[in-house]
Amino acid sequence: MSMLLLRLSARDLLALNARRRLVPHLADRWVHFGGGESSEGERAAWAKSLVSLAEDLMAAERGNVEMIVECSPTTDKGEEARKGGLIDVVLVGRHPAEGTLSVQLVELKQWSSVTRVEAATSELVYVPGYDDPVEHPALQLGKYHALFTGPTGLLNGLRFECGGFAYLHNATDESVLPLLGVDAPTGPYAHVYTRDSRSRLLNDLQRHFTAEDDYSAAEYILHKMELRNTPLLDAMVNSNGEDTVFTLRGRQKDVAREVLEASELILDHPGQEALLPHPKRAVFLITGGAGTGKSAIGLQMRADLEAAGRTVKYASGSRAFNSAIKEYVGYTESEFRERFTYFSSFVNAPNPPLDVLICDEAHGLRDRSTNYRLPTEKQGTKPQVDELLDASRVTVFFLDAGQTVRPYEVGTVEVIEDAARRRGVALRRYGLVEQYRCGGSDAYIRWARALLGLSVQPAHEWVPDGLMHIEVVDTPDKLESIVRSEFRDGATARMVAGYCWPWSKPDKDKNLEHDVRIGDWHRPWNASSESFCAKGEPPSRIWPVDDAGIGQIGCVYTARGLEWDWCGVIMGDDMVWRTDRWVFQRGKQRKDPETGVMRVAKPGSLDPKVRTSTLDDDEFARCVRNAYHVLLTRASRATVLYSTDEETRQHLRKLVGETDVRGLRPTLANMPPELRIGRQHQTRRSRRERKAMLKAKLKNGMMLF
Q1: Biggest distance spanned by C-alpha atoms of the chain
Q2: Which of 222, 239, 429, 501 has the highest count of CB atoms within 10 angstroms of its CB?
Q3: Computed over its alpha carbons, how large is the radius of gyration of the chain?
Q4: Strands 87-94 and 101-108, how do they pair?
Q5: pLDDT digit string (tens) for 370-425?
Q6: Which residues of the chain have pLDDT under 50?
């Protein structure tokens, strides 16, 4: 993933600094990218130089200009990015006359004076405190300028103005005269400003950037830096149902390549019989948290393996995930069955076994494959993980232990490793850490885990980073208003909640009961139905992707594995804050004597598999925490959070902090028009349409993968 410490407008950066959160946040991000503990000098530079530049932007009436801090001009990872150089600040806005993207690359120097290196040009100077001569800042800016604007640069292909300057806010013109001489480097990136030339800097900032605060030009940079991910289902739609269009990055690409290469060594040549009576087998286990790209890797590998002539199936324990893919992409029933299946489909192993079985959401593995609708002979008699290993020669598991939300979900690293060991099958394990959901904000993931008590890090105040947004509201009406507003503008959006209300089936006329009731506000759960309901509400299996799902409330079982731009999360009384700790409560329900409808009798969890008294308190708390962790990580841009409990809301509001910081809410309205891609009104393509598009691709010689 590209390296970037912060992205905020100048006014928002100053607001963050006023809350004494600027430097701690930058230091945390620096550690995350492998930089170790930041030095006192680095922290001083952030505290002084960044703030000075932001104050000058405000003085120039350009507080809307966005500041991207410690940015890599390449999309290399961690140490590789730092070797390529980190530019102190990239200023991004709109040109006041042209209206196009306007970018200024900035090197911030705390130098107070420099002296010329004897018998040399101004390209090298001595700086007090440095052992060796250093190059003129314009030379470094020239390299950054080439990287940003070159053939593979982050800004290549855009119509824009790009310049740069060095700002020595501690110096005077006289004290750094060698940097300003006629023999100094020249170019659009070679300007140098000091304390003496501050007025000229303000004028130039006004010349480069408009004062209009309309939308976020920096989104271009985030997209180019691959910090804005293509949502899973969008990529599937773009595939036209015939291939997969994922751009794997960094560690994702490495893992996919290694698994595919290893598979070639294990599997026989397609179409030839095995030479050995007992061919080799292997297990690959890929672990990673929510948003690390597990499904993208799995779906891309499925497509590549199928194209190579392998027999391959993509299995999941999530009915909602499979149904969403089928509905959104537009597979026919037979097309879907050729490619996708469920964990419980291998009670009887295929003969011969599949070449490859890809098991996504493997944390949802069950102890046994059981289904009350099926006869006894189709019920599993051995661990489900053993059935999956028997079904294929190469088995690939994708697993996130933080997403086990019911006690019968036994998918763990230990269970899979033990099953492979018992069979004497080689197992290779990989870990994913790069974050591609939640705007690429690892800070948000860490904040959410700390909030829920899922990490050793104590809960702490959220620091806006310009990548992900979160806010707390006081009423469910407000939550719904925000989510619906973004949905109307073209964003993908849904409301989800903890399982704290009864879940009624549609009545005989297919009307839905409004089970989720908070005061006068009430909405239905996504429909427990196989077909559309009386008012057009979709069945739960396609609730995540059907437009009408916006008026229903989803839960962890229908949201897991999916994502939206905006997600409204309702925390119920199963997890409430009391003074200094979380308290977990099991609820009860009763039948209303007048209506015959189930209602809440005692607030708390009403999940029938979780609230049961046979589940001990620690396991109950773990399931509830993990469920909210899933719900809090469904958004790619913004989470709106509400709790039914007043004390919990106050706790959340304290941790989220001020939400009146201007420009942080990532609405579609404040995005560049070219990036406002409304995705919820997708229509399924017919099989004929998809076949025709595939034919056109082949005719034009386009690559499928």
Answers
A1: 97
A2: 501
A3: 28
A4: antiparallel
A5: 766 667 777 778 999 999 999 999 999 999 888 888 887 888 999 999 999 999 99
A6: 1, 77-83, 239-244, 661, 678-705
Residue 86, amino acid:
L
Q: Give yes or no for a contact between 242 and 704, defined as CB atoms under 8 angstroms apart.
A: yes
Query: How many other CB atoms sit within 10 Å of the CB of residue 161?
Result: 16
Residue 87 has which token pair?
Answer: 């530019």
Position 506 scores a pLDDT of 93
In Å, what is the CA distance from 472 to each residue of 9, 56, 552, 571? 22, 32, 20, 11
Nearest to 26 by CA among 70, 65, 67, 83: 70
* Number of neighbouring beta carbons within 10 Å of residue 621: 17
**Alpha carbons 602 and 606: distance in angstroms, whole number:** 9
Q: What pairing do the DSSP bridges indicate for beta strands 553-554 and 521-523? A: unpaired
Task: Return the sign of the alpha-carbon dihedral for residues 591, 535, 634, 644.
Answer: negative
Give the closest residue to 245 by CA, choosing from 305, 310, 300.
Answer: 300
Contact residues for 316 (Cβ-Cβ < 8 A; gap 6+): 322, 340, 342, 343, 359, 360, 361, 364, 561
Residue type at 638 in one-letter notation:
A
By the 10 Å C-beta count (0-12 exposed, 13-18 middle, 19+ buried), 292 is classed as buried
Please check whether residue 286 is in contact with residue 327, taking contact to mean a CB–CB distance below 8 angstroms: no
Rounded Cα–Cα distance for residues 438 and 466 (Å): 11
Sign, Cα dihedral of 573, 576, 582, 585: negative
Rounded Cα–Cα distance for residues 262 and 428 (Å): 10
Closest CA to 563 of 491, 471, 489: 491
- Cα 245 from chain centre: 18
Distance (Å, rounded) from C-alpha 399 to C-alpha 336?
23
State CA 8 to chain mean position distance: 18
What does the DSSP assignment read for 311-356?
Answer: -EEEEES-HHHHHHHHHHHT--HHHHHHHEEEGGGGSS--SSPEEE
For residues 436 and 34, give the distance between their C-alpha atoms in angstroms, rounded to a whole number: 18
**Dist. CA 64–CA 40, nearest whole Å:** 29
Nearest to 176 by CA among 219, 233, 138, 146: 138
